Every structure is written in C-alpha cells, then in structure tokens.
Amino acid sequence: MNNLGTDVVVAGAGPTGLMLANELSLAGVDVVVLERLHERTGLSKALNLQPRTAEVLELRGLLSGAEERSFATVRDGHFAMIPVGYEGWDTRFPFQLGIPQAQVEEYLEERLATQGTKVIRGAEVIDFVQDKDSVSVRYRTDSGENVLYAKFLVGCDGARSVVRKGLGVDFPGVDGEGFGVVADVLFDRIPDGAQKQWRTMRNVGEPTGATTFKGLIPLGEPGLYRFVYGDRASRPADLRAAVSQDDVRRALLDSYGETATVSEIRWASQFSDAARQAEHYRVGRVLLAGDAAHIHFPAGGQGLNLGVQDAMNLGWKLAATVHGWAGDDLLDTYEAERHPVGAQVLHNVAAQLGLTPRSHSSRALRAVFADLAALPEVSKHLSGMVSGLGVRYPTHGTSHPALGSRLTDEDVATEDGPLRPSTLFRDGGFVLLTTTPAHIDAARAHAPSPRLTTQLVTSLPWPATEAVLYRPDGYACWTAPTR
Ligand SMILES: Cc1cc2nc3c(=O)[nH]c(=O)nc-3n(C[C@H](O)[C@H](O)[C@H](O)COP(=O)(O)OP(=O)(O)OC[C@H]3O[C@@H](n4cnc5c(N)ncnc54)[C@H](O)[C@@H]3O)c2cc1C
C-alpha cells in the first residue's frame, strides 16, 4: 500500500473527468485522475458539441482546438428527430460542432498534460472511505492495490459508477424498454439520399415504423457514416452483448435495401433507453458528475455536453472550497444547480421518446408537434432545452435580468475599443465588467475567490446597470445598479 496525498481525486477520464481535472488544475488545485483503462479506446459514442459547450470551451480558449478536430458544423439540433434551429438565441455559436467523443477526450487530456496533470491509466477505483477531513481512495493497478488520500473525490466514472454505488446514493428512474445500435460503417456505395456532409439534422434520422428508427450521419471521411438504428419498444435479451457484423449488415439491408454496399464495419455497440438520475450529487467529500450522476437515451445528443457543463459548474466551486476561499454552502450549490438541469434533460428525452409514432393518434400528435416546432418561439424553446443555451440558474434576492444568465459574449465597449468578454475568462477566475472602479471592492466581496479580472467598460447592455460580475463558468452572479 502506498500513501500519497492530493487535493482531489477524479475517478474516470471520460469527457466529464477530463474537463473537471482541467478546471481544477487551472485553479491551482492538485488533482489526480485515475482511469481504469490502460489506453483510450478511440471509440466515440458522442459526435457533437452543443452551442453552450462551444461557449464554455471558448471561455477557456479551448474552442479553436476543438474546431480543428471537428469534421462538421451543423446548423441545427433536433427534438425527437424534428430539426430545431438556434435562431433567437443570442450566441456566437449557433451550431453544433461535429466531433467524435474520442477526439474531445484526446484534446482535453492533452490540455490537461500542458497544465502538468497526467491521467494515471490502468488505475481502477475499487472503493473509498471518507471522514470529516479526507477521503481515502483504494484503487487497483497492475502492480497491486494503492490508497490515495484526498480532500475530495469526484466520481466521473460513468453510468456504472463505483463511486455512486459506494455512496449508496439512490439512482431512481426507469429501465426503459427499447434499444439502439450505433455502428461506424464505411460504404463502397452510400445509400440513396444520404447527406455527403453533415450540415443539418434534416433527413439525418427518421422513424421507420411504429417504434423503430434509423439514421445516417456522415463522419467526414469519404464513405464513412455513423449508422444508428433500433426499436423503442423491444430489445435483445442481452444489451451488453457484442453486436455482430451480420446484425449490422441485416439492419442496413432492411433500412436501405441493396442500393448501399458496405466495405467495412469499424465498430458497433448497443445502448438502452434506461433513464436514471442520482438522488444526490454530493455526500460529504464525495461528488458525482456526468454519466455517474445521470443516464438517458442519447436523443438530441446531450449526455457528453451535460457532463462537460457539470464539470464547469463544479470545478471552480470545488477549487474555492479546497483553497479555503469558500464555505461548504458554495459546494452544495453544485447539486442545487445541476440536479434540476439533469432532471430537465431526462424529462426532455422522455418527451422525445413520447413522440414515437406508435399509433394513429401518436402519429397525428407527432405531426402537430412538428408543425409547432417550426414556430420560432417553440423552436427556440426546444433548441434551448437540448443545447444547454436555455439553462439559467436561479438567484435569490434581487431580480436583475442578467442574474443567473449566461454570458452571451457580445463585444463590450472599452476605452481601447471593442473587447470580447470571453477572453477575460481564460484563467478560470471571476470577471467583473464595470463602468466605474467604485464597484471593484463590492465585487470582490461577492466573488469567493481572489482570482478576479476587472474590466472597465464604457457601457453595459443592461439599463441602469454599472457592473456585472460573472462566475468562472460564465453565469452572472452579481450586479450593481446605477448610483
Ligand atoms: C450510443 C451513444 C451515443 C451517444 N451520443 C451522444 C451524442 O451524440 N452527444 C452527446 O452529448 N452524448 C452522447 N452520448 C452520451 C455520452 O457518450 C456520455 O454522456 C458521455 O460519455 C459521458 O461522459 P462521462 O465522462 O461522464 O462518462 P464516460 O464517458 O462513461 O467516462 C467514464 C470513464 O470512467 C472510467 N471508469 C469507469 N469505472 C472506473 C473506475 N472504477 N475507476 C476508474 N475509472 C473508471 C471509464 O473507463 C471511462 O473512461 C451517447 C451515448 C451513447 C451510448
């Protein structure tokens, strides 16, 4: 047994754990990431970054690197395969970035390494014990068992989270009744009507029967597609079983006939429509984030994005707690803010499944819903739910319109010319935009961190407002009225 010490142990180097570790490292927190796998699989479940994820990556200067690795820019999202656009949302990124999950992970891990934090691979968390001062985390490597002592442990260890189970936190929800398969297929001859480049969700997926569905997403390499199919009302006996090449070929034949010819099936995997959410995201010194805290059918492409946003919310709060800048109540706001957001995602996924055209009346309902979704206000509402742009955190006390809302990142006017506010968030601190230095001391009192960037601006986009303080994750948390 080895005794090592660190501030935070992150269990799991998926997108959530890597984003969180990046945030903690940026804030000067000593973090150790333990990952069960010896190597990244290179396989991608998720294929997209939603607009709100693009926004938070931009806050950290990470977006351009993600864009370099992306294979598509998609101008809309979807709700139950009904395209919904981002018109009406004031965002600089009204699109989804097509990027394989493996690329997101590789990129975040590279960035983490530049901050001096390495992922310890082949290190599987077995269990942990916490007391009022620390958590001891037992993990297994090829050379035996080790124990790591930390101030906090965060379970980012995915759907079957050992950390969640160790906490004994309930994971209520439904097992679901359907299944899906994802397969990356290289075609010699692509199916008739398939998009050559992924630009829109239109025609990407569709119901094929009362409960069955199919979809084809071009992956950037000529002839290479993500093929998705499944049934929302029945499932194979063993959802964890490997999907055979024959299964995928049969499904392709059923879906596209003989017009398509397949050169290679690179990988295939099954998934379920189970939906569960951990009752609590925090118990003492142990927290949960990402799929460890919530699972759902991948409708709308939300899971990875939800995990990254969990990490953005938790990172600065945990850092402030570790550094002793904030009391325990700040860390409690992680669950208070993120549990409802996770619940909303499970809710919208269930609603999407509810739009399955199972019967005469549900087909009519779906058609009416599609008409409604074409209305700008409805489309905005739906795309806001799925993209994360609609998230607004509740605030208490004052009711300024900026409070709880995200930085929309329009240029602000300064004496030196226009300035893009997102550039002020690179170091992960709080950001104050103010028309007068008189508010700086008050802002400091409201920021539970000495890391505060102050920017004098000549005007702000809200009437009768002289200052707005943003949290490190880009949500407004304090304002000063005109004196
Ligand atoms: C078919 C499919 C398609 C999807 N498509 C999309 C999409 O288009 N868009 C989207 O946003 N989301 C999508 N998702 C969801 C997305 O893939 C997940 O939400 C995302 O992977 C969650 O990231 P995570 O880091 O929380 O968990 P994971 O990615 O599961 O990572 C957990 C990590 O922890 C490690 N680990 C597990 N146990 C231990 C342990 N005991 N000790 C140490 N390490 C451990 C694992 O090896 C893994 O590396 C899809 C999911 C599926 C199944």
From TrEMBL:
Residues 6-348 form the FAD-binding domain. Pfam families: FAD_binding_3, Rng_hyd_C. The keyword Flavoprotein applies. Keywords: FAD, Flavoprotein. Residues 397-418 are annotated as: Disordered. Its cofactor is FAD. GO terms for molecular function: FAD binding; oxidoreductase activity, acting on paired donors, with incorporation or reduction of molecular oxygen, NAD(P)H as one donor, and incorporation of one atom of oxygen. It comes from the Bacteria. This is FAD-dependent oxidoreductase. It comes from Amycolatopsis keratiniphila.
